[in-house]
Amino acid sequence: MSITPDTKDWTWVLRRPCPECDYDASAVTTDEISARLRDCASRWRDVLARVDVLDRPAPDVWSPLEYGCHVRDVCRLYLERLDLMLTTDDPLYPNWDQDATAVEQRYGDQDPAVVSVELETAASALADRFARLSHDEWSRPGRRSDGAQFTVDSFARYFLHDVEHHLHDVGAS
Fold this sequence. Notes:
It contains six helices and two strands. By secondary structure, it is mostly helical. It has one domain (30-169): dinb family like domain (Four Helix Bundle (Hemerythrin (Met), subunit A), Up-down Bundle). Strand 1 and strand 2 form a beta hairpin. Helix 2 (33-48) packs antiparallel against helix 5, helix 3 (64-87) packs parallel to helix 5 (112-131) and helix 3 (64-87) packs antiparallel against helix 6. Residues 1-7 have low confidence and may be disordered.
């Protein structure tokens, strides 16, 4: 699963619109993050109720259900990472292997109705947390184990691309 034109340089998504989904991080303000996340969660509800929710378009492409599980888990992970950024000086996030998680958690075997509720709950918790941030908190730093450095602002806009892009992946953008 690749959503970047250059997987070595993750920052491209903050500098220019995504060529696949047209997400433009530079046009997203911090005031929009929560509302856009909530909107995406509501659109995922519709995706996870579709009749083709279990269908993989190709053997190496996730089904809408698998993408929904991934987005749910990304929302949970980003809430944990956001809390780290707000409570620890320049934290290094624990590593997360999204592909291993998909296999271990058996994404393709989960109940779409349950995933829908869990995704909406996770997205809502993260949206609430973003909505409560003070002006100064948007500039707090954090780092991934691969060396990527974020502020809460760039972290939020980077994250939102993932959620919106995967709606594009399942034909719901």
